[in-house]
Amino acid sequence: MPPSLGRVVATPEPVELQAVGRPGNPESVTLFGAEGAFDPPATRKALASLAAPVLLLAGAYDLNSPPSAVTAFAELFRDAALVVQPGAGHYPWADDAEAFGAVVAGFLRGRG
Length: 112
Prior knowledge:
Largest sheet: 2 strands, parallel
Shape: globular
Strand order of the largest sheet: 1-2
CATH class: Alpha Beta
CATH topology: Rossmann fold
Number of strands: 2
CATH architecture: 3-Layer(aba) Sandwich
Oligomer: single chain
Number of helices: 6
Order of helices and strands: HHHEHEHH
Radius of gyration: 16 Å
Number of domains: 1
Distance between the termini: 39 Å
């Protein structure tokens, strides 16, 4: 598994970060990829009809959700703000909590 952080650290990732992608509920894991769980046309239609503003934030070094993929997702929404956080991986709040917080706070202030 590739590193999740956008920076090199001398110690392993904290347990909290490692556990984020591994739900403790086996039933939800099974249902997540079950037959019929994904309906891309219906999902695209629902996202396009969403009236609420959406913030999509990608870490510049995220291998799981790379900026190019997040950019494509942003195009599905009617009102999306896209931010790519420099130096961040899949956990941008862990790589630079201050930058992450500033982006989120700015988004919320601008929409409030």
